[in-house]
Design a protein that fits this description.
This protein is of the alpha+beta class. The protein is built from 5 helices and 22 strands.
């Protein structure tokens, strides 16, 4: 029994000495050495880093955001490789040098927006909001190229020169094509008939009074309010509430106000018996007797009177008789 106890005590001493030796060795190693990562880039040794995750996260953030304005992303074709090792404590890390080396190989892609007319890129801006604003302003000005306008998102290595919104609108605006409407003075037949006119021919240039979709054209139709089959004496152009309505030609305001099924109505006189009607307005911005120029905003689109939705009922009358607006408005 005594021998067994002696053996146990001896074993404990040996274990203690072994553990103490390991601790001393590890402490010596830690005092002299430290764990680091050897870094290779494009197959070549480029230095050491102590915190691999920190460097990797920094590179990833640069690839995602880049530096400077309008950066979409940065493409870095080859990333560093790491191998853990023990180095003497006096060995210094080179995180910044490695990061800058990796960054220098990146290819920066810039995001911006092209305002297009048809398939042709015309103007470049930095944000989608600016592009949308340019198109909206051109539509409100009734630019004749408004149906061809579009926006394309771009991501390229070379960013274009940007244009301010106001300048872009000026550069892209195209005066609406005004078709010449030929009427005659003298007597005219009944609406819907074979309108033969006599007298001296006259002409006037007219433009479309608002942007939107042609909802209903001139001619016989089933009235959407009453359900009866009647003559529609104008052209209905539908758009959102509050869309600008402009004068089709220069003239004088003959009437403004409520007029039965027309709701809020503006009548412009253009001379030689030619008048234009703008009905169902939400609000009227001119007054009777006022002179207006072609393209001037005279009202805002609404749905007053006999109407099933926001639109502008547009009529052309010669000596009080409605004519077909489709002869000059598409």
């Amino acid at each position: 029994m005594k021998n067994i106890l002696v053996h146990i005590r001896t074993s404990f001493k040996l274990i203690f000495l072994l553990v103490a030796s390991v601790i001393i060795i590890l402490a010596a190693i830690k005092f002299i050495y430290k764990p680091m990562y050897s870094v290779t880039f494009n197959g070549e040794f480029v230095g050491y880093v102590q915190d691999k995750d920190k460097l990797e996260n920094k590179i990833k953030a640069y690839m995602k955001n880049g530096e400077g304005a309008n950066v979409d992303y940065v493409d870095i074709p080859v990333l560093p490789e790491y191998k853990i090792c023990l180095l003497k404590n006096d060995k210094k890390a080179s995180d910044d040098e490695i990061y800058n080396m990796v960054k220098s190989t990146g290819i920066t892609y810039y995001k911006y927006y092209a305002v297009t007319v048809g398939d042709e890129e015309k103007i470049y801006v930095s944000t989608k909001e600016q592009a949308d604003e340019i198109i909206e302003k051109l539509k409100n000005k009734n630019s004749s190229n408004k149906s061809k306008l579009g926006v394309t998102e771009k991501s390229e290595t070379e960013v274009k020169e940007f244009t301010e919104v106001a300048q872009a609108v000026d550069e892209l605006y195209v005066e609406p094509v005004r078709k010449t409407y030929v009427a005659t003075t003298g007597s005219v037949g009944n609406v819907g008939g074979s309108n033969t006119a006599t007298g001296v021919p006259i002409s006037i240039s007219l433009s479309r009074p608002t942007s939107g979709v042609v909802w209903s054209r001139y001619g016989m139709r089933t009235n959407p309010v009453s359900g009866s089959y009647t003559m529609h004496t104008g052209m209905d152009i539908a758009n959102s509430q509050g869309t600008s309505i402009t004068a089709s030609a220069a003239g004088t305001v003959k009437f403004t106000g409520w007029f039965g099924g027309y709701g809020n109505l503006v009548i412009l006189s253009h001379g030689n018996g030619v008048e234009t009607y703008y009905a169902h307005c939400q609000s009227i911005l001119v007054s009777a007797g006022q002179s207006v120029s072609a393209g001037q905003t005279i009202a805002l689109m609404g749905s007053t009177g006999n109407s099933t939705g926001p639109h502008c009922h547009f009529e052309v009358r010669v000596n009080g008789v409605a004519q077909n607006p489709q002869t000059y408005v598409n």
